[in-house]
Specification:
Strand content: 15-25%
Bound molecules: magnesium ion
Structural class: alpha/beta
Length: 431
């Protein structure tokens, strides 16, 4: 079944809360008004930034670094640290493929900053490479698209995101063409439901504990803190959260690469006493010997790898057992690449906990299919707070209940995109 058309939709949904972490229903409503065309683009996106900006006035240690926030308009970056550039909005690139029989497939290339870049790569390179190909050659398409830029050194980053957005759209079309959920077309469902953990924000102990408690009230049995504070403060916050939610709730911590080897081992030894489930992104991800030392020094598992996109990047990590839990991001690996990584992880008895982060609704739906299909799956990342904003481009309801997603009989990824709504969020015309 030939692919006859590919479109890329770079979108930006303004919201003044961190989509991965904080609840702010007032702003969800503002963004919804925008979809309905009831209000012109007049959205205050400065609240979260202002919270971060305050840190600029009082530089403090983030692991090894001091923080200096630079405002770049749509984006901001902490120049003093090794952490990421962030958007003040939800940004991503939604991909649509059309087959000769009229079947439409939807995909997403995660683009937390500059979705236009990903969309341009799709239009200029991936579309001409992929048009005319048979959707049932999906793995061969991934391989050929990957290989076409390997000699030039584009074996990760935006280029891989672009080919993986198309890969997910092809898998959606395959499921629809066979009238079955994509996980069945990928080889079958290993479970009937997928456990989720909720990502929470905040920088003060009481604030983070409030969000943890709120998550538990929504049915979550697992919560993950995103902490970029000092060593001492991270420990203080973790203690408060454990105290508040009790011993029956699983708690994870993501420290966003903020530490060196020595200090994260120090942090881990304290967190072991609180019985946390994992420490995520402990340090510089390119320092594989350092990651091995961290893993060997601590009893608490290390979860890592949201930025690695292909099996080729994973070989040394698995061979050296550099960490305990692998975290492929499906909107960066594609379903094809994610399945390859999970299969190799299984050889090393390493569980897989897919990263979603700021990924949009197609990313969530594709990650659900991946989680259903993966035998060594552990738990999937989710944002209860961010879901409503992500879901604004859907034509019908798709949401988690009581901290889990259920296997549905809907074909493909199990969601339908409302193209009119999607176009309202485009940062420029679709390419
Ligand atoms: Mg992370």
């Amino acid at each position: 079944m030939k692919i006859v058309n590919i479109e890329a939709f770079p979108i930006r949904v303004k919201s003044d809360f961190d989509i991965g972490r904080k609840a702010d229903t007032k702003n969800i409503n503002t963004a919804m008004l925008e979809v309905k065309g009831l209000e012109k683009t007049k959205v205050n996106s400065t609240k979260k930034y202002n919270q971060v900006e305050k840190r600029n006035l009082e530089p403090k240690s983030l692991g090894n670094y001091e923080t200096y926030i630079k405002d770049m308009g749509e984006y901001y970056v902490d120049e003093g640290s090794a952490t990421s550039i962030y958007s003040k909005s939800h940004e991503t690139t939604v991909v649509k493929i059309e087959t000769e029989t009229g079947i439409i497939g939807w995909g997403e290339a995660q683009s937390p900053v500059s979705p236009n870049t990903t969309a341009t790569i799709i239009k200029d390179i991936v579309e001409p490479l992929t048009i005319g190909k048979d959707i049932y050659d999906v793995e061969s398409i991934w391989h050929n698209n990957y290989s076409s830029k390997r000699e030039r050194g584009h074996y990760t980053g935006f280029y891989i995101d672009a080919i993986c957005g198309v890969d997910i759209a092809i898998w959606d079309a395959i499921g629809k063409s066979l009238n079955m959920p994509t996980c069945k077309a990928m080889g079958g469902a290993h479970r009937k439901s997928v456990a989720l953990y909720n990502g929470i924000g905040g920088t003060e102990p009481e604030e983070v504990a409030d969000q943890a408690e709120w998550s538990v009230s929504k049915g979550y049995k697992f919560v993950k803190m995103h902490l970029k504070e000092s060593l001492e403060k991270d420990i203080e916050i973790a203690r408060k959260v454990r105290e508040r939610v009790g011993d029956s709730i699983g708690i994870m911590i993501d420290v966003h690469m903020g530490f060196d080897t020595f200090n994260v081992i120090k942090l881990g030894k304290e967190l072991e006493k609180l019985n946390l489930l994992w420490i995520e992104s402990p340090s510089d991800p390119t320092d594989i010997p350092g990651l091995c030392e961290i893993s060997r020094s601590l009893d608490i598992p290390i979860a890592n790898g949201e930025w690695t996109r292909t099996k080729y990047e994973m070989r040394e990590i698995f061979e050296k057992r550099a960490y305990d839990i692998s975290m492929p991001d499906i909107a960066r690996t594609g379903l094809t690449g994610g399945k390859q990584i999970a299969s190799i992880a299984q050889l090393y008895n390493i569980p897989v906990s897919p990263h979603v982060g700021g990924g949009g609704i197609v990313s969530v739906a594709a990650t659900l299919q991946f989680s259903l299909n993966t035998p060594n799956f552990l738990i999937m990342e989710h944002s209860e707070q961010g879901h409503a904003v992500k879901a604004m481009i859907l034509s019908e309801k798709f949401e988690a209940k009581n901290g889990e997603f259920k296997l549905s009989e809907k074909p493909g990824l199990g969601i339908e995109i409302d193209e009119d709504k999607l176009r309202k969020f485009q940062v420029s015309p679709s390419l």
